[in-house]
Structures are given as structure tokens and as C-alpha cells.
């Protein structure tokens, strides 16, 4: 798909990602996905025999929030159910910050992949988030002397159980990702890989000591930080504060990587993500590429094009078809995105017929 800036290309990919993840890759506020002046945003898609639907209505006193409803074949479901019907791998300009950007970007990338790889992980992550919210509220009440520390016992236990499962799930994901990540890196940058492989490493504030389990480590650190948590009114340790580092030849890429090395690492991660999800049942995920070819040199473009050609379907956006590799243009169906008063439309490039 191609079209000028602000025509709606990214919004179309965002809608597809919403059907696969139940969330946007561009904002953490559901209300921001609703068009200005409207009270409802709704996306529906068909994947095989399944009909996926996500609807968001305005909420909050100022209308800036959003209340989300998810349905699969007309039945209300959780967001994790969407990924079982539509697996999505997204490569967008925002991904170029994955190596050197905020830890939350890396956590989100790992969590999304873990939820797709391990069906129970998404539920564990949601449970942990709710527990964390309740525990933080109680810590603030204790700081304000409207609650006692004894009331923390229940939420501490739930925090340890759910937090340990999240830590274990991330560790299992990194272990499963190690081989396809190294292979993708060798494919893209063989000379660089020969000098030292690309790996992912957990950077945690709860490192285990000796034979400690993740739960044991969390429990020990809760004791260490108890007074500071009350003072701050927030939970100071746990997987919500962990990070994941990209290491090249044993060194953290964030500290020395050139722009080209960052792109190589991120592209290797995305190709490894494709391979890992395809391994589940032989069904490749839907690849979404949002105006990324202009960021890649000819060699990296060629690697990406070869992977795209092997996929049943992929969506690629650009401001002009000239930015796409000729080999990709030769096999792709082109659509032009045009902005109109009531939204974006797609025009088939070969016939001019509207979708």
C-alpha cells in the first residue's frame, strides 16, 4: 500500500494489529484510536472461519479514555483469544528504537511474542498487572496511614505467584528465541556474526542467588525493599521493572552500536519472531511492514524481500512504490491509499477499482 503522509496507511496496519493483539502499537490509550468527533471505533476481520472484532467506545469524564469490547465469532473474549486466531509480526519505524530506547519497548516486544508462543502467558501477564495495580494502591494507602502493612500479605502472595510465572515465561521465550535469532543474524550479517553472535539477555532487579527459583528471588527482594516501597508508594522490584539487552559478542549493543548494527539486530529479531511463531503449527504469522524499506540498505532489503516472498500474505506500506525493492513490486498486489473526508480508501493499482 502506498500514499502520502497522513493518508491513513499506518492506521490501516494499526487496525490489523489491533485484531491480533487487542491493543495498538502506537498508543497505550485506547481512546486515542477513536476518530476525532466520533464515539466509537470498530474493527472486524475474517481469518479462515473465524470473525474477529474489536470495538472501542469513549469513556471517562473528558471522553479521552476508551472502553474495549472483544468478540470472536460473536462471543465476548479476552485479548489473548485474538492472537490464537491472528498472529501478527509488526516491523514499524518505532521499532528502530528497540535496541537503544526505553526498557518498556523491549518488555512489550518480548511479552507480545511470549503471549503468542505460550497461550497461558498472556493471562499471567494480565493477572500480574492487576495484582501490581492493587498492591501499589495499598502501598500508597499505607504511606498515608489509612491502611496497615498486614494488609499487604495477600497481595504479596499473589504478586509472588504471578510475578514468578512472568519471569519464567520470559526466560523460556528467550531460550526458544536464541537459535532462530542467531541464525537470522548470520543470514543478514555473516561477517559481523563471525566475530560474535547476537543474543538476548535479561537484565533483572531480582537476580537469583545460588539455586533460588524466580519466586524465591522475588520474595527475598520484597523483604529488602519493604521500607522503601512504603516510602515511595510503589512496588520497586519485579518483572515490570526488568529489561532485555541485545548483546553482540558479549557486549550490550545499546552502548556502542552504530545505526546499521541496530537495524541489523532489529531485523534479525523480527525474522526470528517469524520463524518462532511459524514453528508452532507451520502457519506463518501475518507480517506488517510500515514504511521500513527506506531505513534499510540494499542487502537488508533483499533479505527481507526473500522472507516476504515465502509468506502467504504480508502488508507493506510506503509513501512511494519507488522505495520498494523491484523484486517485491514484481510479485505484490499494489493498493493506493487515499484520504477522503470520511476516512481512507484503497484503490487497486492495476484496475483502479475500490476495495
Could you explain the architecture of this structure?
The protein has helices spanning 9-21, 80-85, 103-117, 119-143, 152-188, 190-195, 214-232, 259-281, 298-309, 326-331; strands spanning 40-47, 50-59, 65-72, 75-76, 88-91, 198-203, 243-248, 251-252, 286-290, 314-317, 335-340, 343-348. Helix 4 (119-143) crosses helix 5 (152-188) and helix 5 packs across helix 8 (259-281). The strands form 4 sheets. It has a 4-stranded antiparallel sheet with strand order 1-2-3-4. The protein has 2 domains: 1-86 and 291-355, P-loop containing nucleotide triphosphate hydrolases (Rossmann fold); 99-286, RecF/RecN/SMC, N-terminal domain (Glutathione S-transferase Yfyf (Class Pi), Chain A, domain 2). It contains 10 helices and 12 strands. By secondary structure, the protein is α+β, with helices and mostly antiparallel strands. The protein is 46% helix and 19% strand. A hairpin with a 2-residue loop joins strand 11 and strand 12 (343-348). The two termini are 12 Å apart.
- CATH architecture descriptor name of the largest domain: Up-down Bundle
Give me the CATH fold name of the largest domain. Answer: Glutathione S-transferase Yfyf (Class Pi), Chain A, domain 2
**Poorly predicted segments:** 351-355
Provide the residue-averaged pLDDT: 89
How is this structure best summarized?
By secondary structure, the protein is an alpha+beta fold.
Give descriptors for this structure.
single chain; 355 residues; alpha+beta; Rossmann fold; Glutathione S-transferase Yfyf (Class Pi), Chain A, domain 2; 2 domains; four-stranded antiparallel beta sheet; disordered C terminus
Amino acid at each position: 500500500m502506498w500514499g502520502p503522509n497522513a493518508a491513513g496507511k499506518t492506521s490501516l496496519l494499526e487496525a490489523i494489529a489491533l485484531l491480533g493483539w487487542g491493543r495498538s502499537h502506537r498508543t497505550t490509550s485506547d481512546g486515542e484510536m477513536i476518530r476525532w468527533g466520533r464515539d466509537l471505533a470498530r474493527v472486524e476481520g475474517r481469518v479462515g472461519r473465524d470473525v474477529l472484532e474489536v470495538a472501542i467506545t469513549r469513556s471517562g469524564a473528558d471522553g479521552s479514555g476508551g472502553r474495549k469490547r472483544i468478540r470472536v465469532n460473536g462471543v465476548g473474549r479476552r485479548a489473548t483469544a485474538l492472537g490464537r486466531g491472528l498472529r501478527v509480526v509488526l516491523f514499524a519505524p518505532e521499532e528502530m528504537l528497540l535496541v537503544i530506547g526505553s526498557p518498556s519497548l523491549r518488555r512489550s516486544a518480548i511479552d507480545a511474542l511470549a503471549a503468542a508462543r505460550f497461550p497461558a502467558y498472556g493471562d499471567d501477564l494480565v493477572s500480574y498487572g492487576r495484582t501490581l495495580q492493587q498492591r501499589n494502591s495499598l502501598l500508597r494507602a499505607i504511606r498515608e496511614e489509612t491502611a496497615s502493612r498486614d494488609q499487604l500479605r495477600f497481595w504479596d502472595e499473589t504478586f509472588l505467584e504471578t510475578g514468578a510465572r512472568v519471569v519464567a515465561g520470559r526466560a523460556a521465550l528467550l531460550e526458544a528465541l536464541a537459535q532462530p535469532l542467531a541464525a537470522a543474524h548470520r543470514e543478514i550479517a555473516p561477517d559481523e556474526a563471525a566475530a560474535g553472535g547476537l543474543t538476548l539477555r535479561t537484565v533483572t532487579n531480582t537476580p537469583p542467588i545460588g539455586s533460588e527459583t524466580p519466586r524465591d528471588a522475588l520474595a527475598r527482594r520484597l523483604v529488602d525493599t519493604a521500607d522503601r516501597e512504603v516510602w515511595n508508594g510503589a512496588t520497586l522490584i519485579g518483572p515490570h521493572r526488568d529489561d532485555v539487552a541485545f548483546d553482540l559478542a558479549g557486549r550490550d549493543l545499546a552502548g556502542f552500536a552504530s545505526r546499521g548494527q541496530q537495524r541489523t539486530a532489529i531485523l534479525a529479531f523480527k525474522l526470528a519472531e517469524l520463524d518462532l511463531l511459524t514453528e508452532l503449527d507451520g502457519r506463518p504469522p501475518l507480517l506488517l511492514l510500515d514504511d521500513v524499506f527506506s531505513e534499510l540498505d540494499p542487502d537488508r532489503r533483499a533479505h527481507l524481500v526473500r522472507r516476504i516472498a515465502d509468506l502467504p500474505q504480508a502488508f507493506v506500506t510506503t509513501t512511494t512504490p519507488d522505495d520498494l525493492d523491484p523484486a517485491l513490486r514484481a510479485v505484490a498486489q499494489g493498493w493506493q491509499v487515499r484520504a477522503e473526508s470520511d476516512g481512507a480508501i484503497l484503490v487497486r493499482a492495476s484496475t483502479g477499482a475500490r476495495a
